[in-house]
Automatic annotation (TrEMBL):
Presence of the UniProt keyword Cytoplasm in the record: no
The organism of origin for this protein: Rotaria socialis
Topology in membrane: Multi-pass membrane protein
One GO process term, biological-process aspect: potassium ion homeostasis
Main location: membrane
Coiled coil (residue ranges): none
UniProt protein name: Uncharacterized protein
InterPro entries: SLC12A_fam
Protein keywords: Membrane, Transmembrane, Transmembrane helix
GO molecular function ontology, one term from the record: potassium:chloride symporter activity
Length: 250
């Protein structure tokens, strides 16, 4: 299971003075502030701080809300998982080739699988930086996976476009085409959607140039069957993978 990040702050607050400005005294998180001795209405309304003996792990709802808030602020987000289990020294000791895999695919919107947006470029950048650090520098090969419905002329042209993009970015990586029509067929298959399906807001709409982000109130159902299908598709390619980068749906 994913390990939720922990956030903890010591319940210690001291009054402070800002030089060259009005004197600001902050009494506590949930009390009023005083500027130049004049009381004001409460300016903070935070919950109670955790005590030393309380669990510091976030619940699922709080964890998701933090990510949601960051997205609303248009921040770049990178979620790291299972790195505490990474045996980095073994990569160099065993002297075996490993892979750093990049899946620049928004799995919630398969129709955009051959389009490369800012998020895709960000993933490529992160993976490239990792490949320049020991032990990956001498042991790892970058692989970029291109998800297609079928291997045809259009797919070959898309792969050529990706190769040219990597060349322009001076990224030394292999490109691999993966047929996934058997997985995408599960996305809108109503027979697989159940009460436990997650709902994802539709934030993309068709334009004359492709797919662009747009905020709407619509939702699509993401079935557990589809999520498991995507997970299995990735796992089948990860026998010698040391680290992989996945597109975080918006």
């Amino acid at each position: 299971p994913m390990t939720a990040p922990t956030f903890h702050q010591q319940p210690i607050i001291q009054s402070g003075v800002m030089e060259g400005a009005s004197t600001i005294t902050l009494h506590s998180f949930n009390s009023s502030a005083a500027i130049n001795g004049n009381d004001m209405f409460p300016i903070f309304n935070f919950g109670e701080l955790r005590q030393e003996d309380e669990d510091k792990e976030l619940d699922v709802y709080s964890y998701v809300q933090i990510i949601k808030d960051a997205l609303n602020l248009n921040k770049s987000i990178c979620l790291a998982r299972n790195f505490h289990q990474l045996q980095k020294d073994d990569i160099e000791v065993n002297k075996r080739k490993v892979f750093v895999d990049i899946w620049p695919v928004n799995f919630i919107f398969p129709e955009t699988s051959t389009q490369f947006d800012v998020t895709c470029l960000y993933m490529l950048q992160l993976a490239t930086i990792l490949s320049m650090v020991k032990p990956w520098k001498t042991r790892a090969t970058l692989r970029v996976f291109l998800c297609i419905d079928a291997i045809n002329d259009n797919a070959l042209r898309t792969q050529q476009h990706l190769d040219e993009l990597l060349s322009q970015l001076r990224i030394n990586a292999q490109t691999r085409m993966i047929a996934w029509e058997n997985v995408t067929s599960l996305l809108n298959n109503t027979s697989t959607i159940n009460d436990s399906a997650a709902t994802i807001p539709v934030e993309q709409q068709a334009t004359t140039t492709g797919i662009a982000a747009a905020t709407t109130n619509s939702f699509i159902d993401i079935s557990d069957v589809y999520v498991r299908g995507v997970n299995e598709l990735i796992r089948q390619q990860c026998d010698s993978t040391s680290c992989l980068y996945l597109y975080l749906p918006r």
